[in-house]
Design goal:
Strands 1, 2, 3, 4, 5, 6, 9 and 10 form an 8-stranded mixed β-sheet that branches. A two-stranded antiparallel sheet has the order 7-8. Helix 2 crosses helix 3. Strand 7 and strand 8 form a beta hairpin. 35% of the residues lie in helices and 24% in strands. By secondary structure, it is α/β, with parallel strands linked by helices. The radius of gyration is 18 Å and the shape is globular. It folds into 2 domains: 176 residues, Alpha/Beta hydrolase fold, catalytic domain (Rossmann fold); 44 residues, no CATH class.
């Protein structure tokens, strides 16, 4: 069954991942089966302004776009985890498979921040999407952790089993378990990049600023006119 290109411009779509959790996203229907999947960053959601604006700008260039919440974020089911990089890549896999079944042509996967790492991990494992855009993904996932978790975080988490990360008002924002910390530390972006096929077009964008979203979308669109992946 071909994708219904005559449907409303935006509609909510729910997709079940391989853990039985419902992932919630918004499909921007540009009357085209050419689809770009947009992935949000750490402790974020599909409703963040850059994600919304990027999907909308891609629509102006004639590409449908899907922005969704990873498990444990936004409207999606599941619990938030500090690590979960490969599990989020599996969430992305569920999304890709869903739209393949709906006969969309997956043109690219785009990820911001943590989502940038996720799209790289996906490309290194599944090798079925030929355009990957990483926006501000962190190359070395061990860097910057002390600023977020505090000094001697390894010793503290091994002693207590977890660290509660608080905001300036002292409110707990999320809990980091030893398992999720080790998940992050064991995720090596460089190794993932080495496994990405040579025929995959890969773009690294260092900063995402709302004022340049449309130019970013045009840059992505210029890549998309070259390669299409048909499921």
């Amino acid at each position: 069954m071909m994708a219904d290109c005559g449907a409303e411009r935006e509609r909510k779509v729910t997709i079940r991942n391989n853990h039985g959790e419902n992932l919630v996203g918004i499909l921007h229907n540009a009357a085209s089966i050419s689809l770009v999947i947009v992935c949000h960053g750490f402790q974020s959601s599909k409703e963040r302004i850059p994600m919304v604006n990027l999907a909308a700008a891609l629509g102006k260039d004639g590409f449908s776009a899907f922005r969704f919440d990873f498990a444990g974020n936004g409207e999606s089911e599941g619990s938030f985890q500090y690590g979960n990089y490969y599990r989020e890549a599996e969430d992305l896999r569920a999304v890709v498979q869903h739209f393949c079944e709906q006969k969309y042509a997956i043109k690219a996967i785009v990820g911001h921040s943590k989502g940038g790492n996720v799209v790289l991990l996906y490309a290194s494992k599944y090798k079925d999407i030929h355009i990957v855009v990483n926006i501000s993904g962190r190359f070395n996932l061990a860097r910057g952790m002390e600023g977020r978790l505090g000094k001697k975080f390894i010793q503290r988490i091994k002693q207590d089993g977890y660290i509660d990360v608080k905001n300036k008002r002292g409110k707990i924002m999320y809990r980091v378990t030893e398992e999720s910390l080790m998940d992050r530390l064991s995720t090596i972006t460089h190794l993932a990049c080495l496994l990405i096929p040579q025929d995959c077009r890969y773009s690294l964008l260092l900063h995402l600023i709302t004022g340049i979203i449309e130019n970013l979308a045009k840059s992505v669109a210029s890549c998309l006119t070259v390669t299409t992946y048909h499921c």
